[in-house]
């Protein structure tokens, strides 16, 4: 099976540690992973901000870059949802504009092959215990796209529960949005910040040392809020927890 | 072009050619994979469910045999000091044989102000829905005009079980005549308008007593 | 602020004050969380919820596709049952129609059942201008009317008020509208409801004209349906001699049987009850029971324009349950007034800009008043994909395009104030098509990382007022991959 890592533009630029964690984790599980250097961005921000036509070439580019792989793994619920839920819609809208099914045909191959990381682990590799060690009290925030678009369900939770040394505690109001929402965060800063603050205070109230999620975009917003508030609790991507082993100093991979 | 024609023309332009042959595609377009009722129950269990759901929304539920009905109705009215009682023309008069309060006929000439002087009303019903705890009145002679069950503050409604009882909303609708004015009643009047918290007792009868007659 | 990169429009400005208002935040939080949990329980009780939702969606979609047929069928049935049917293209026409109908009765006051359609067209204000006083009789509407306030929720228009505030409004305002509030009124919901009962009773008993909307109109029978809780609806529908119902044309269902779906989904989605206390159905007029004269005003007012948009038309499936408001984290914090419409919350954010068009700043800002979290879609009993429509309307703002306004197809230009954003989107789309350019940009950012502040000036302030920026790493992942040959050359 030829597996490609679609790291996403945000992770590539700002969170390379997450990329290294995915690599380390999958290698440990015996999966060879390629990182096609031509990859860029799935077009989600463009699409969701109302620039569907700007998102189209990015979707085509994604299809070009990843079309030859058997599986495309991404450590981002929202980017996976862009491909799986919204690429079909890009094709439908193009058809509705009288452009036929050409775009749909171009995008079709990559749609079912794109997996969010925890889906790939649980559904494709069939593992729940990935042999990780992470001696921290962790609370988990299921991000909206993971929860409602992809339907990740209890996959992340099962993976976390199998991690040695990890104590998983319930996040109050877990299913409520953190307030990031892409450009929402800057177009509606007051509401976005209020939502982020409530999420951070909820996470802090659990006594956990780490707030875990499967999407660094949400964690950037929550981490920025934590940093400003100087909280004890820190953000961490689920890949970094799952990659950690006893060999890592302080249990943190990277 | 008048407004009717203008609106219809706009609708037709908006939906394109889809507007023809409505009736032919209706059955195909609408999947009805939902249940006709939720769960299987015996007639007795259905009656219990109705009682339970009515009570949950603060209706007061009583069970009785037909023979005991006059005494029960008399007692319920007396307990709440009813001095006048509205009785629709088709209500069996023997049901009210023990009532001490003054009987008031349902007349088209009585004004709302006059009805406001009456303390209670006794009616039958068209049917009751167990799953939702609902009574349906359809203005038949034993139920009277809609306003008589609205203005008096105390409503006693008699339901014959199992004849007038259905399990579910899907079972209720085909038994009702849409040509009659219907009132579906699920508990006494209530509001959630203050802090989205339900409290009973606003404009409709604040006391709803339901007698299930077996 | 408009004209900046973020195109700061009206909703954010209105939300700014709401977010800072602690009483409002607490009121909204309390109310929405109370109902949210109850709704979830009420829905879980039905194991065929998904099927009911699908049926509701398909009934509405079918009706919309054949709306002309069903409107004509409804009209015939209502007339056959003794009613009179009027058609109104817009708010002005509906208002003058209703005003004339009231004037013809010779009455100077009307009692009203809570109705979104009449709020949408500003009927009370139009009647007031003609010297006719309209009394709102729903408890929450009464609170809004007495408080000279604006509604902030579809189901509970006074949701932004807590019991103490309501008590004060009753105490100070009831006397100038009729029967004063009782002496020493307490702030318990039960006592407040009792005060409303006493205040409104004299109005109900003397009312000669009632005005309502409707939740549903059944085309095959000509039946109108109203779901309510308090009994004010029954009062207005049965005691007056004349009843005037103003109903949006999308409220039609084809058959009597269709009610079996919505009578199950609406109460549970709305007040989280198995069934609301009172549902009234009426077909034209009945002999010696209820109003002797019945007028139905069928209202377009932007609905056919909405119908013309094949993505946006799903908003017309809405049955006004308000579940999407109660579950929305943005609504909870911004409050209903920030939406600048009688339709607040997620459904308002897609309905208002379609019904009114996007000529105003507020209507152009509404499609952005969402983090696209999808909670609204999840709870919607007719499966309106609100995020999909929001994004579709954002496209209309950002890119312009063809729309129908007042029945005419026109092309709208991209909105002003989005020029910088548009340029940025184009530039990033261009760069993302060229990995080399992306790489150059990443390297530049990494090389200058020590110089980056954790807060930004200008438009970036919107981020930095409450959040630090992430630190830019020493090298991007792709540079690390290239340097270490995919980690194989990594020395640890």
Automatic annotation (TrEMBL), chain A:
One protein family per Pfam: CCG
Annotated Cysteine-rich domain residues: 3-83, 138-222
Entry GO MF terms: oxidoreductase activity
InterPro entries for this protein: Cys_rich_dom
Cellular component terms per the entry's GO annotation: cytosol
Protein name: (Fe-S)-binding protein
Organism: Streptomyces mesophilus
Lineage of producing organism: Bacteria, Bacillati, Actinomycetota, Actinomycetes, Kitasatosporales
TrEMBL record, chain B:
Pfam families on file: LUD_dom
Ranges annotated as biased composition (Basic and acidic residues): 30-39
Residues annotated as signal peptide: none
Region (Disordered): 19-41
Residues that span the membrane, as ranges: none
Ranges where the LUD domain occurs: 50-213
Protein name, as recorded: LUD domain-containing protein
Origin species: Streptomyces mesophilus
TrEMBL record, chain C:
Keyword list, A-Z: 4Fe-4S, Electron transport, Iron, Iron-sulfur, Metal-binding, Repeat, Transport
Domain Lactate utilization protein B C-terminal intervals: 393-483
Family matches, as PROSITE patterns: 4FE4S_FER_1
MF-aspect GO terms: 4 iron, 4 sulfur cluster binding; metal ion binding
Residue stretches making up the LUD domain: 73-288
4Fe-4S ferredoxin-type domain location: 315-384
Ranges of biased composition (kind: Basic residues): 446-455
Record bears the keyword 4Fe-4S: yes
Residue segments, region Disordered: 443-470
GO BP term, example: lactate metabolic process
Pfam hit, one: Fer4_8
Signal peptide positions (record): none
Protein name, UniProt field: Iron-sulfur cluster-binding protein
């Amino acid at each position: 099976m030829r597996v490609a890592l679609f790291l996403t533009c945000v992770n590539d630029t700002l969170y390379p540690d997450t990329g290294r964690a995915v690599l380390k984790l999958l290698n440990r599980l015996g999966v060879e992973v390629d990182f096609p250097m031509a990859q860029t961005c799935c077009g989600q921000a463009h699409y969701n901000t109302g620039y569907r036509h700007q998102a189209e070439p990015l979707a085509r580019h994604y299809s070009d870059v990843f079309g030859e792989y058997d599986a495309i793994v991404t450590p981002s619920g929202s980017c996976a949802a862009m491909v799986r839920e919204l690429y079909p819609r890009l094709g439908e809208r193009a058809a509705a504009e009288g452009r036929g099914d050409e775009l749909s045909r171009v995008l079709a191959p990559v749609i079912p092959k794109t997996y969010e990381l925890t889906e790939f682990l649980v559904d494709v590799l069939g593992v729940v215990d990935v042999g990780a060690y992470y001696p921290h009290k962790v609370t988990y925030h299921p991000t909206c796209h993971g929860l409602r678009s992809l339907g990740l369900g209890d996959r992340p939770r099962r993976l976390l529960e199998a991690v040695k040394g990890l104590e998983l505690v319930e996040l109050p109001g877990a299913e409520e949005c953190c307030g990031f929402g892409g450009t929402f965060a800057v177009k509606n800063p007051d509401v976005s910040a209020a939502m982020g603050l409530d999420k951070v205070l909820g996470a802090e109230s659990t006594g956990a040392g780490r707030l875990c999620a499967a999407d660094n975009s949400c964690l950037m917003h929550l981490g920025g809020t934590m940093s400003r508030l100087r909280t004890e609790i820190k953000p961490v991507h689920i890949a970094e927890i799952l990659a950690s082993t006893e060999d890592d100093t302080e249990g943190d991979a990277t | 072009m008048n407004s009717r024609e203008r609106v219809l023309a706009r609708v037709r332009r908006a939906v394109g050619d889809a507007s023809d042959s409505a009736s032919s595609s209706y059955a195909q377009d609408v999947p009805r994979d939902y249940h006709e009722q939720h769960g299987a129950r015996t007639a007795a269990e259905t009656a219990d469910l109705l009682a339970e759901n009515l009570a949950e929304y603060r209706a007061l539920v009583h069970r009785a045999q037909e023979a005991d009905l006059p005494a029960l109705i008399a007692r319920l009215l007396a307990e709440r000091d009813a001095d006048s009682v509205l009785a629709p023309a088709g209500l069996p008069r023997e049901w009210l044989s023990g009532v001490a309060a003054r009987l008031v006929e349902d007349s088209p000439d009585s004004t709302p102000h006059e009805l406001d002087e009456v303390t209670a009303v006794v009616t039958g019903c068209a049917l009751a829905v167990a799953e939702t705890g609902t009574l349906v009145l359809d203005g038949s002679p034993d139920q009277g005009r809609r306003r008589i069950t609205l203005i008096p503050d105390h409503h006693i409604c008699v339901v014959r079980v199992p004849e007038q009882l259905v399990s579910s909303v899907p079972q209720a609708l085909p038994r009702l005549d849409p040509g009659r004015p219907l009132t579906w009643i699920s508990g006494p009047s209530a509001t959630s308008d203050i802090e989205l918290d339900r409290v009973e007792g606003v404009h409709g009868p604040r006391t709803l007593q339901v007698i299930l007659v077996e | 602020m408009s004209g900046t990169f973020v195109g700061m429009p009206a909703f954010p400005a209105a939300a700014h004050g709401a977010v800072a208002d602690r009483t409002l935040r607490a009121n909204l939080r309390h109310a929405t969380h109370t109902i949210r949990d109850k709704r979830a329980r009420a829905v879980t009780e039905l194991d065929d919820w998904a099927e009911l939702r699908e049926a509701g969606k398909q009934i509405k979609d079918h009706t919309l596709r054949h709306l002309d047929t069903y409107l004509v069928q409804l009209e015939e049935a209502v007339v056959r049952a003794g009613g009179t049917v009027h058609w109104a293209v817009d708010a002005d026409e509906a208002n003058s129609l209703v005003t004339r109908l009231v004037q013809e009765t010779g009455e100077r006051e009307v009692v009203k059942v809570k109705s979104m359609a009449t709020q949408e067209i500003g009927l009370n204000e139009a009647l007031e201008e003609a010297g006719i006083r309209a009394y709102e009789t729903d408890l929450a509407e009464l609170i809004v009317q007495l408080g000279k306030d604006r509604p902030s929720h579809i189901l509970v228009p006074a949701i932004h008020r807590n019991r103490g505030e309501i008590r004060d409004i009753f105490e100070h305002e009831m006397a100038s509208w009729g029967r004063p509030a009782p002496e020493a009124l307490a702030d318990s919901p039960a006592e407040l409801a009792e005060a409303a009962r006493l205040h409104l009773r004299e109005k109900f008993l003397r009312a000669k004209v009632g005005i309502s909307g409707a939740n549903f109109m059944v085309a095959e029978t000509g039946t109108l349906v109203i779901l309510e809780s308090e009994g004010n609806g029954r009062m207005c529908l049965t005691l007056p001699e004349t009843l005037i119902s103003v109903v949006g044309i999308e409220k039609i269902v084809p058959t009597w049987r269709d009610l079996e779906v919505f009578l199950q989904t609406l109460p549970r989605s709305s007040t989280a009850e198995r069934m609301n206390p009172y549902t009234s159905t009426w077909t034209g007029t009945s002999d010696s029971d209820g109003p002797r004269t019945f007028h139905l005003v069928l209202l377009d007012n932007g609905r056919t324009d909405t119908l013309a948009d094949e993505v946006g038309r799903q908003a017309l499936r809405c049955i006004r349950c308000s579940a999407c408001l109660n579950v929305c984290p943005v609504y909870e914090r911004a409050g209903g007034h920030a939406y600048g419409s009688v339709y607040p919350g997620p459904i308002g954010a897609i309905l208002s800009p379609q019904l009114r068009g996007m000529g105003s700043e507020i209507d152009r800002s509404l499609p952005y008043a969402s983090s696209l979290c999808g909670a609204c879609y999840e709870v919607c009993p007719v499966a309106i994909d609100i995020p999909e429509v929001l994004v579709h309307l954002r496209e209309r703002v950002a890119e312009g395009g063809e729309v129908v306004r007042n029945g005419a197809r026109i092309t709208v230009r991209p909105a002003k104030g989005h020029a910088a954003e548009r340029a940025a989107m184009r530039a990033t789309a261009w760069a993302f098509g060229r990995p080399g350019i992306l790489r150059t940009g990443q390297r530049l950012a990494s090389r200058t990382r020590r110089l980056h502040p954790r807060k930004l000036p200008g438009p970036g302030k919107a981020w930095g007022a409450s959040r630090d920026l992430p630190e830019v790493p020493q090298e991007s992942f792709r540079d690390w991959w290239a340097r270490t040959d995919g980690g194989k050359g990594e020395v640890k």
